[in-house]
Design goal:
Blueprint lengths: L7 E3 L3 H12 L4 E4 L4 E6 L3 H11 L8 E3 L3 H5 L6 H10 L4 E6 L8 H4 L4 E5 L4 H10 L3 E2 L14 H8 L5 E3 L11 E4 L5 E4 L5 H8 L4 E2 L23 E3 L9 E5 L8 E2 L6 H14 L7 E4 L7 H13 L4
Parallel strand pairs: 1-8, 2-8, 4-6, 5-9, 10-11, 12-15, 13-14, 13-15
Antiparallel strand pairs: 2-3, 3-7, 4-7, 5-6, 9-10
Bound molecules: threonylcarbamoyladenylate and magnesium ion (MG).
The site of threonylcarbamoyladenylate has 26 residues, from β5 and β6.
Length: 320
């Protein structure tokens, strides 16, 4: 797909929101900030618009999209919301949780959104700008992360521009994303199953459900039912070496906690919330020709640390 679109940067004011909403309603591609990462939005009912998302990102068409809606009532118009989903929605929406639900018969969603599945992933984002945009547009908005497929996810409008300028119609600039990693994806079409760790810690879901979650096996590259299952994802140009206790010659250290010699530090005090918010922006900053290997300090594997380690593992995976 040649980069032949004029990409407008829209300010986060009433005018910018109205223009973004009108573009979405006209079948255009608009990147917008959520509390997790920037999404690349399109009208989820419009085949041509949704096809544009796949083309702009060079995304494999077997990888379905998340539909964004302003509230639970809007979700009910496209999906069957069962009792478990009701409880989780009451506890965690709006917020960084995506639920996989059965598609409603009456749903007018493009088949390209669900990649032909009988289920749909839905999310009610909390970021005020995303809320205002979804209410102004008043349509279901399909939105994957606003980056070329396989690359580092965007947490600033500038990241979106770097990756997709000329391929999309606008970016609504809302500054930095507060959470910094994608939403947690939970399949509730059967016993709740964690498809992707993310911005809502699994421990919070388990506490709300009162039971441990089923999880996917770590790694199923042939059957990607969630994005993280693709072998290589979220990847910078440099190689990554994880759990680095000692820095080797020629490496650039991405630190966590009070470690010496870090080029950048996710959180000098060892705060997982701060580290999550910094993760993708720091990987973007280290994505330069001078950096050949990024060594990353060990990150605790609980709470948000699980999502950080998941993304780092994908970023370190062999490239296809
Ligand atoms: O935080 C987020 O979730 C961001 C922001 C923009 O909302 N979006 C995001 O979208 O991360 P994306 O496309 O990068 O990841 C969504 C993943 C898909 O790759 C797909 O594997 C999974 O959700 N998914 C979508 N529909 C599904 C379904 N019906 N069943 C199982 N997994 C599904
Ligand atoms: Mg993504």
């Amino acid at each position: 797909q040649p980069p032949d679109r004029k990409t407008r940067m829209l300010a986060p004011d009433a005018e910018g929101i109205n223009v973004a909403a009108a573009l979405l309603r006209a079948g255009k591609l608009v990147a917008f900030p959520t509390e997790t990462v920037y999404g690349l939005g399109a009208d989820a009912r419009d085949d041509a618009a949704v096809a544009g998302i796949y083309a702009a990102k060079a995304r494999p068409a077997f990888n379905p999209l998340i539909v964004h809606l302003p509230d639970l009532d809007a979700v009910r118009t496209i999906a069957e919301v069962g009792p478990a989903a009701e409880d989780l929605a009451a506890a965690f929406w709006p917020g960084p949780l995506t639920l996989v639900l059965p598609v409603r018969d009456a749903s007018e969603l493009s088949r390209l959104v669900t990649a032909g599945l009988e289920t749909v992933a839905v999310r009610v984002p909390a970021a005020p700008l995303a809320q205002e945009l979804l209410r102004a547009a008043a349509i279901p908005v399909a939105a994957p992360s606003a980056n070329p497929s396989g690359r580092i996810s965007p947490t600033h409008a500038a990241h979106v521009m770097q990756g997709l300028v000329g391929r999309i119609d606008a970016v609504l600039d809302g500054g930095a994303c507060e959470v910094g990693v994608e939403s947690t994806i939970l399949d509730v079409t059967g016993p709740p199953k964690l498809l992707r760790p993310g911005g809502l810690p699994a421990e919070a879901l388990e506490a709300a459900l009162g039971a441990p979650l089923a999880r996917l096996p770590d790694h199923q590259p042939d059957r990607p039912s969630a994005p993280g299952q693709l072998t290589s994802h979220y990847a910078p140009n440099a190689r990554l070496r994880l759990n680095a206790e000692v820095l080797r010659k020629g490496e650039t250290l991405l630190g966590f906690g009070p470690v010496p010699d870090a080029a950048l530090n996710l959180s000098p005090t060892g705060d997982l919330v701060e580290a999550t918010a910094n993760l993708f922006a720091m990987l973007h900053r280290l994505d330069t020709p001078e950096v050949t290997t990024i060594a990353v300090s060990p990150i605790p594997d609980h709470g948000l640390g699980t999502a950080i380690n998941d993304r780092l593992k994908r970023a370190a995976a062999p490239r296809v």
